[in-house]
Request: fold
Amino acid sequence: MNVLQMIRYVVVSFAFLTSCAAHALGGTITFSGMVMAPMCSFDVAQNVARRPAVQTVCSQPASGTVSFVDTAGTTLRTVAFTQASRQLETPRAATVHHIRHLIVVVTYR
Reply:
């Protein structure tokens, strides 16, 4: 091994050890935004006569959208809501037996 190869080996080894040590010692997480409690709660109302609905209860003024997504990632329906909204009907494809396979995505404005 010549001197140039030896220097490269030492530099690469030092860089590797330094990066491993920095990773093991800790790090910094940068956060931008606000952590807050959700403004509304959502619950599934099981109504055997009709298809299931999502009940909304908002503790403060709120508005946004609720998207119903199937397990394949396809958006079946998107509904706007406000603090005054009480029930949001699920997509026609949703039945009492299939409601467990829906993902509800809430977006606040």
Observations:
- The chain has a mean pLDDT of 75.
- The chain is about 20% helix and 35% strand.
